[in-house]
Amino acid sequence: MDPLYAEGELLTIHNDFHQGQYQKVIDFDTSSLSAENALPARVLRLRAQIASGQAEAVLADIEGEDEVPDLAAVKALAQYSIGSTTEAIKEAEYLATTSSENMMVQILGGTVLQAAGKGEEALVLLTKHSGSLEAVALIVQIHLQQNRTDLALKEVQAARKWAQDSLLVNIAESWVGLRLVSQVINSHKLQYFSRIMPQGGEKYQQAFYEFEEMPVCQAVAEIHLGRIPEAEAALQQAIQRKADDVEAISNSIVLNVLHGKDTTELIE
Fold first, then answer.
1. Confidence of residue 25 (pLDDT cuts 50, 70, 90)
2. Contacts of 268 (CB under 8 A, 6+ apart)
């Protein structure tokens, strides 16, 4: 079982991170955490800073701590996020060789390698995990990007046996559900449409519930459910949370274009 989920005192900060509530993670009071959880909590805070555009500050914070594999992995992610791609890949590949059993090396190193187009290397590293839900989620993402929905579904089904009702496995299952229904619709097998759509609607509805705390993801599920006003509201909520949220803005532009609405303000 994922240690971040097994430990109750890390559950809140971990869930906040994966719901995109990065400021909550950065502001999280770690003073009462046990000594063994101090480093995992610090890594989550550093990752939240990177996601919030503070990678330079993160690199300054961890300077000289490369001997700690978790922080070296954070360094690789921060380097990649500021465009130091060569250095980041070199660091990730080095860590994959020297510290492949470290969970953060697997997750962050795998993230860097996949982002750099080295999906197979990322999978080799990530599949060394020992019950990490985040590694499972990343593996599912990679399989979906490779259009291997069958492997993504297999990964989710295997994780469900031991992860039960954990947030990340629910989210990963929703990703796969959305892809499966999209494939059915795109197959143009109209003779089966009436039989399949009830199941598809159920999968989209499941995705909607899982994504309620993540407005952009929720908007995608709303669109597939045909609830355009709700999708617009979810995207507006995302932009209110973070005015420069690229995903929220780009999805809003697409939605406006599809419905003949003005996109000038969003583009500017």
1. very high
2. none
Distance CA 127, CA 39 (A): 23
Residue 121 CA to residue 126 CA, distance in Å, equals 9
- Cα distances from 176 to residues 71, 159, 211, in angstroms, run 31, 13, 13
What average pLDDT score do residues 126-150 get?
90
- Give Cα 199 to chain centroid, integer Å: 25
**Cβ distance 173 to 186 under 8 Å?**
no
Max Cα separation, the chain? Answer: 63
Quote the Cα angle for 136-11-245, to 5°: 70
Please give the full DSSP string across 145-195, using - where no structure is assigned: HTT-HHHHHHHHHHHHHHHTT-HHHHHHHHHHHHHHHHHHHHTT-GGGHHH
Torsion of CA 51, 55, 58, 63, to 10 degrees: 150
pTM of this structure = 0.69
* Cβ atoms of residues 129 and 95 within 8 Å: no
Mean pLDDT of 34-52: 94
Residue with the bigger pLDDT between 121 and 131: it is: 121
The pLDDT tens digits of the residues spanning 142-191 come to 998 888 988 988 888 888 888 766 777 777 777 777 676 555 444 443 33
- Rg of the chain (C-alpha set): 19
Per-residue pLDDT at 207 exceeds 70: no
- Give Cα separations from 250 to 109, 165, 171, 244, 246 (angstroms): 28, 31, 22, 10, 6
Q: 266: how many CB neighbours lie within 10 A of its CB?
A: 19
